[in-house]
């Protein structure tokens, strides 16, 4: 069933197959990259006017959960002053989203306690000595010591999905990575891994059962000439594709908080969906619930289960400002990667203005 067209954008510059002809072009941040996205949308809709009448939504997961409402704010301001092309903007959605607020990190503590990752004693110590603080930046020795123990304990689990085994991240490995590859599953490396493009930094190969095995395969898929031809990647613009870490690009984190954009946009009548994989320890659903509630809008559809195939697929609550919050049962960071069927059901119902 098709419910929408989706336009994916590699952003910021340097991510995916995006590139700059000058080194200075890679020096971007929250504000400049969002302005680039806005410019892209203006040009894309100008070139494809047949889509202007279609309802338009902006979405982003994880850190893009900060960019999406900021971009939405910029677009909405353009609509208010009549900037052409006039987009039929209806709303936005954010998954396992960051906000820039301390609640994003602080909510890991009660979440880890609820999952039995930290003890009652450590939880009580953190509450006692870190009260009122940003847990990621302790201001006293007792809090710092407790958070050191906390970080050590959560490192024992796969924080993106706490029920899964901790696996190799499958990012670029040192030159001797091939000697470290785990071949215990008895499977041969795909034939496509050899002789089809420039591959200088292959990642370590995790066991087949690890969730990161897909990341490992993505390296070979993205460096396959057939993939690039299908995607229309221009010859010579991107040599080797690698999964990057947060600090691989000269990116400036400039947005301190995006709660004001959520407040502004939903107050103006735009629809919003915030959803969380309920097994995500990186941006726990507890924190997302907390900031959604902090917008101080009344509840119109109280907390209840939503279903797929006769089973609870998660839980949801809706507010008078057209904001809906939903959890995805079994989802991690980010939810669609772990529970695509449930996420598609949630998205389809919401985008079509149906009840979850």
Automatic annotation (TrEMBL):
GO biological processes: proteolysis; secondary metabolic process
GO MF entries: acyltransferase activity, transferring groups other than amino-acyl groups; serine-type carboxypeptidase activity
Pfam families cross-referenced by the UniProt entry: Peptidase_S10
Signal peptide extent: none
Family membership: Belongs to the peptidase S10 family.
Name of protein: Uncharacterized protein
């Amino acid at each position: 069933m098709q419910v929408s067209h989706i336009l994916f954008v590699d952003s910021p510059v340097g991510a995916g197959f995006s590139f700059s002809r000058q080194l200075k072009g890679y020096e971007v941040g929250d504000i400049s990259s969002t302005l680039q996205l806005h410019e892209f949308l203006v040009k894309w809709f100008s070139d494809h006017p047949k889509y202007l009448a279609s309802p338009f939504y902006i979405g982003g997961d994880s850190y893009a959960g900060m960019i999406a409402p900021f971009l939405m704010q910029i677009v909405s301001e353009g609509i208010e002053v009549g900037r052409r092309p006039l987009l039929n903007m209806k709303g936005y959605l954010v998954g396992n989203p960051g906000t820039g607020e301390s609640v994003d990190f602080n909510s890991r503590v009660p979440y880890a306690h609820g999952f039995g990752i930290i003890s009652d004693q450590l939880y009580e110590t953190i509450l006692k000595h870190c009260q009122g603080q940003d847990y990621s930046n302790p201001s006293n020795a007792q809090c710092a010591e407790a958070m050191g123990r906390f970080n050590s304990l959560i490192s024992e689990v796969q924080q993106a999905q706490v029920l899964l085994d901790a696996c190799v991240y499958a990012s670029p490995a040192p030159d001797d990575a091939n000697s470290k590859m785990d071949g215990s599953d008895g499977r041969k490396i795909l034939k496509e891994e050899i002789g089809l493009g420039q591959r200088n930094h292959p990642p370590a190969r995790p066991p087949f059962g690890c969730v990161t095995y897909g990341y490992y395969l993505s390296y070979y898929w993205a460096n396959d000439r057939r993939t690039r031809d299908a995607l229309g990647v221009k010859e010579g613009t991107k040599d080797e594709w690698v999964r990057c870490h947060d600090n691989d690009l000269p990116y400036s984190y400039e947005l301190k908080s995006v709660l004001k954009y959520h407040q502004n946009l939903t107050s103006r009548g735009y629809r919003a969906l915030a959803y969380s994989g309920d097994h995500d320890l990186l941006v726990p659903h507890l924190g997302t619930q907390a900031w959604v509630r902090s917008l101080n809008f009344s509840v119109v559809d109280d907390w209840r289960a939503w279903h797929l195939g006769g089973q609870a697929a998660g839980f949801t609550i809706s507010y008078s400002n057209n904001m809906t919050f939903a959890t995805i049962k079994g989802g991690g960071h980010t939810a669609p990667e772990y529970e695509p069927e449930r996420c598609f059901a949630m998205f389809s119902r919401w985008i079509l203005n149906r009840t979850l």
